[in-house]
């Protein structure tokens, strides 16, 4: 069982930075695939970033590649999403997700656990 709690959302100016955090429970945290998704008003939930386990690969959507960085601190059971060069189109509710096994990291339906979401608003 895994419980996820996001934090770090808020209002930021375009071009600014924000760091989201996802605190996870469970002794097997380091074995989980972790993902970040977002959903804007009137839009479907979309994949943002993910990483497999401790030494797994990092994955990003084309829209955030080069601007966002996903990382984890296993000692703190926390996953981060560093967001730089933010744009108004990044405005959305961001969700943290986890699963011990994910065939496709970009598919939200493959994740077992989800956080409550945190609002990110980027103003022009």
Can you walk me through this structure?
The protein has 124 residues and is an all-beta fold. It has no helices and eleven strands. It has strands at residues 4-7, 10-13, 18-24, 33-39, 46-51, 58-60, 68-73, 78-83, 92-99, 113-114, 118-123. The strands form two sheets. Strands 2, 4, 5, 6, 9, 10 and 11 form a seven-stranded mixed beta sheet that branches. A hairpin with a 4-residue loop joins strand 7 and strand 8 (78-83). The model has no long low-confidence stretch (mean pLDDT 92).
Short note summarizing the structure:
With about 120 residues, the protein is mostly beta strands.
Dominant shape: globular
Structural class: mainly beta
End-to-end distance, in Å?
A: 40 Å
Q: Determine Rg (CA atoms, Å).
A: 13 Å
Please give the number of β-strands: 11
Regarding quaternary structure, how should these chains be classified? single chain
Query: How much helix is in the residues?
Result: under 10%
Number of helices: 0
Order of helices and strands: EEEEEEEEEEE
Strand content: over 45%
Write the layout of secondary structure elements.
Blueprint: E1 4-7, E2 10-13, E3 18-24, E4 33-39, E5 46-51, E6 58-60, E7 68-73, E8 78-83, E9 92-99, E10 113-114, E11 118-123
Parallel strand pairs: 2-11
Antiparallel strand pairs: 1-3, 3-8, 4-5, 4-9, 5-6, 7-8, 9-10, 9-11
């Amino acid at each position: 069982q895994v419980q996820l709690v996001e934090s770090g959302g808020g209002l930021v100016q375009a071009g600014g930075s924000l760091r989201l955090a996802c605190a996870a429970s469970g002794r097997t945290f380091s074995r989980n695939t972790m993902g970040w998704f977002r959903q804007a008003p009137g839009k479907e939930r979309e994949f943002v970033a993910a990483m497999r386990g401790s030494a797994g690969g990092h994955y990003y959507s084309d829209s955030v590649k080069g601007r966002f960085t996903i990382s984890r601190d296993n000692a703190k059971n926390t996953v981060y999403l560093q967001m730089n060069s933010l744009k108004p189109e990044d405005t959305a509710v961001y969700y943290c997700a986890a699963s011990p096994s994910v065939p496709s990291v970009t598919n939200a339906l493959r994740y077992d656990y989800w956080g409550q979401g945190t609002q990110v608003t980027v103003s022009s």
